């Protein structure tokens, strides 16, 4: 069977004037996956958005984004579909935008509108869920969403060097047990040729492989990942491919 990932052609469109929405960003990723089968999501129902966000938030985003509102719903739908595959024990990556991890229940910034991953985690409704975020930026929206939820753990990867970044993550994982669902906020803006200037393309393969090994051994073999940041179109696709090659 061909390997699969989630994507929709509508994500090619520029929907706002921020770096996450730029033309060419999605093309740089999809061209690396000609050997994959593309699975297309449906837009998330508003009731799914409300699993994480307030009604006020939803209305604000709808008014602010106008036509692009449907793209934001589609991104959330992509994350939900990825979680559905993970529940059935098939690892899945969602190439979606706008990204989500800076969207809190009642606020948003940083190119994010709805917290795609958080919505998918709530939708999956499994007991012990672990969120690993390796984006350059702290996922304040995800952290805020689950701060009072004892069953959902949010971990933002940190490290001054690529070695410590990976060993810190491994150390954290070594303390985790009985994980029912592993959800990964996959941002690639920490790459050596991107904003963060730290990780190599090979490091993303290593991170993916470590997460897979953890999930198969100490988790429930249920894992999915959603695209967050990553802004250098020359390297983004290769980084996503490298991560997926380790993660699947
Ligand atoms: Zn970022």
**What ranges have pLDDT less than 50 throughout 5 or more consecutive residues?**
none
Average pLDDT level? 97
Distinct helical segment count: 9
CATH class categorisation: Alpha Beta
Shape: globular
CATH architecture: 3-Layer(aba) Sandwich
Biggest beta-sheet profile: 5 strands, parallel
Kindly state the percentage of residues in helix.
25-40%
Characteristic key phrases:
248 residues, alpha/beta, Arginase, Chain A, five-stranded parallel β-sheet, two-stranded parallel sheet, 7 strands, binds zinc ion
Short description:
The protein has helices spanning 25-30, 46-49, 55-65, 69-87, 116-124, 140-146, 162-174, 201-218, 236-247; strands at 4-6, 37-39, 92-94, 129-133, 152-156, 181-186, 223-227.
Layout: helices, strands, pairs:
Blueprint: E1 4-6, H1 25-30, E2 37-39, H2 46-49, H3 55-65, H4 69-87, E3 92-94, H5 116-124, E4 129-133, H6 140-146, E5 152-156, H7 162-174, E6 181-186, H8 201-218, E7 223-227, H9 236-247
The chain binds zinc ion.
Describe it.
40% of the residues lie in helices and 12% in strands. It has 248 residues and is α/β, with parallel strands linked by helices. It has one domain: 3-Layer(aba) Sandwich (Arginase, Chain A), CATH 3.40.800. The strands form two sheets. The chain has a five-stranded parallel β-sheet with strand order 3-7-6-4-5, with helices on both faces. Strands 1-2 form a two-stranded parallel ribbon. The longest helix is centred in the N-terminal third of the chain and has 19 residues. The chain is globular and about 45 Å long. The two termini are 13 Å apart. The model has no long low-confidence stretch (mean pLDDT 97). The site of zinc ion (ZN) has 7 residues, from loops. Zinc ion binds next to loops.
